[in-house]
Amino acid sequence: MATKRNGIGVLMGVELVLNGANINFVAFSKFTALGLDGQVFSLFVIVLAAAEAAVALAIALNFYNNHLTIDVDRGNKLKG
Amino acid sequence: MVGETLRNYLMIAWLLPLAGFVVEIFFGFYSKNPRHSKAAAWCAVGCIGAGFLCSCAALVTWGNANDWCALEHHDSHGEHADAGHETAGHEHGEHAAGDHHVAEPAHNAAAAGEDHGHEHAVAAASGDAADHDDHASGSQQTTYSGVLYTLGKFGSLELSLDYYIDSLTLVMFTMVTLIATCIHLFAMGYMSEELTDEYVDHQAHTSDGKHVHRPGRFYRFFAFLSLFCFAMLGLVLAGNIFQVFIFWELVGICSFLLIGFYTERKSASNAANKAFIMNRVGDFGFLIGLMVLWTFFGTFRFGDTTNAEGVVAEQGLFSMVHRDEATGNFLTEPITGDVLITDNHGHALQQDGQNRSIPYYLLVVAGLGVFAGCVGKSAQFPLQTWLPDAMEGPTPVSALVHSATMVAAGVYLTGRFFPMFVQEVLLTIAYIGCITLFVAATIAVVATDIKKVLAYSTISQLGYMMLGLGVFGWGAGLFHLITHAFFKSLMFLCSGSVIHGCHHEQEMPKMGGLLKKMPITAITMLVGVCAIAGFPMLFGLHFSGFHSKDAIVASALAFMKANPSHFLLFFIPLLTAGITAFYMFRLWFYTFWGTPRDHHVHEHAHESPWIMTVPLLILAPLAWLCAYGGESGPLYLMLTGDAPSHLANGVAAATEGGLVMPGHEAVHAVHSQAGLLALAAAFSGALIAYILYGTNLVNVEQMKNQLSGIHGFLANKWHFDDLYDALFMKPAHKVAAFCAWFDKTVFDSILHGSAKLVVLVSQWDRIFDEKVVDGFVNLLGTSTQSVGRSFKVVQTGRLRQYVMFIVLGVVALFAVVFTTFPG
Question: Which of A4, A5, A79 lies nearest to residue B797, judging by beta carbons?
């Protein structure tokens, strides 16, 4: 994710990170006394990831409309 | 009810001038043409004239109610009584303004007393006549008192407007209203120059040296006169001494306003201030007297108040002290000597089981206090210097306020308050009067301003009245008050006529020979001069001053015989009787006799118009004849009708070697002797005046130069003004100058120093504010800004870099977590 310049690639990296986290939640919940906590967390994360994907894709589209590319390095307008 | 009728008559007479004042001052100002209209004057004359008729009506009502018992003559001393039967009717006609039938042939009052019907006619016709007291027998009520309006109540103490009507009140009312009416008429002519939109005052200058031009003040003058009449009548009617004080101040303010009538003249406004301030000095004593009375007696009323059943509800001052029947002294506590406060029957009032009493010395203080007020108002020594200066006012004012009425109010109050005076107070009164009459008479001898001569003569005659009261001649003093009011107002009006005729020339050395130019004025003036000099016999009728001055001198002689150490109280008045005749005839010869000294003045002199001469012609016979019959005549008997009862028998010495007050018998015994002496003095005075001023036998100027020392002393008024200047004015100026210096140096420097300190402190404060407070705030701002600026480089805008930060951050977090919580 950190190396990708393509916005869609970055997005896919984000999804991977989230899914990795989900697996961790489910797996580590086996070793806690809290029962279904890990599974419920991961369900939330899945829902959030879906919403995030929708928003991120919309940003990517608009980015493309403005710059005719989705190279994230071009988006440096907010540089301080 | 006679009392209510009397009260109503006198209240109308009293309040009408007030109504007149209101109308004149407001409607006079708002009317279409106030500067040219005589309406205000007619209004004033109408009010005071109606007041005179009401006073006459009250007098007749009073006389009828007690069957003219005042005129029944008890005493037998009547050596003057049979003088002048033949013209008595004449006098009566003058007095009563033509009503009633004239009694003729007029009996003298003593004879008339036997014949009731006839006596009635005499009394009714005279309008001034009447009465003799029945205090002793108690068969007739002659004094009426009561409450008009309650001002306030403080527990059991009460302040109210009261009335007290006795024969003295009625005579004063008639005299004041009659003289005031004449003077109002005269003033209508005298003040007619004010009937203009632009009056030029030749004696007042603006800062650039021109004469002052101002609108005429005709209506204002009459408004002030009306206000004065209201105040004066209120003073006479007053039934308690606090009310007297109120009206006392009211006449004072009217006097102030009228003296300062030509307010643009510096001398006039100064004189007004002087009169007012000197009166304050006396009134201060008056207030002290009032406080003593209020503290010990708890009432200011003169007479008793009765309730509806005629029972005494509340006692007045006069019945709260009783005199011993035999000696005439106050009833006292045997051990302490305090004077007892008693009920109507001479029994001591009780409070907390003890007799109520007032220390003797406080009774002296109260008497002296009240008399101090009279000293100020009547211009007695040592407060006499305001009256000559008061001549700055218009001449009718001098006639009404400063000779006939207001200045006589002091004598009136002394007479009214007589029952409360103890011997020591009476002796003080006598000596004050004695000093005054001598000092003023000597100054009058050298005065050259015609009005100033009359002013000093007024002071001198007021001194006679005070002396008369002080030597126990109560009737004599008040008798002289009435006769003096007539002849002095006459003379002032004559001098006004002269001044008017000579176009405001007042200096006698510029006059002379005016007899032919103004005959009416000259002749009426001569009547006044003869009256004040005390001449007897013109067509068989004595002049009024003869009777009244005789009475005073006789009282003084009797007093001297009873108390030989006080011989001055007789010899000085006797000598002054001669001086009086001298300076009055000097005035007359100077003005009317001889050859004109200033041809310019003489050529333009003219007799005054009828409206000014008619009052003279009314007053002249009154001045001549008002005392008809002397001490057996109607005026004297009427005046003394309600005299204090201890007068008749005199008062024995309270202590060994104390003062003895002569009774009527003692006075009567020396009457003819005193009369002859006074007459001799008067004749010699008049003769000297004739030789010096009526003939050319002696060069007066040369004589003046030879006596320049004494002349200068007298012309400078015995240096009283200089003395007061040195005693009070100069120190006051010194103190004021010191205060000004102190103010400027000490107070101002303190103020300036503190102001500088404040400036300094605020400068420091500014520096602190600008440097420290503002610096801190600015530092905070700039440091915040620089921190923000240094952090902004972190925000590169490169997305992948941010992700790297996240990765590194997570790794770092892991590392921290695992190193912190190993296992």
Answer: A79
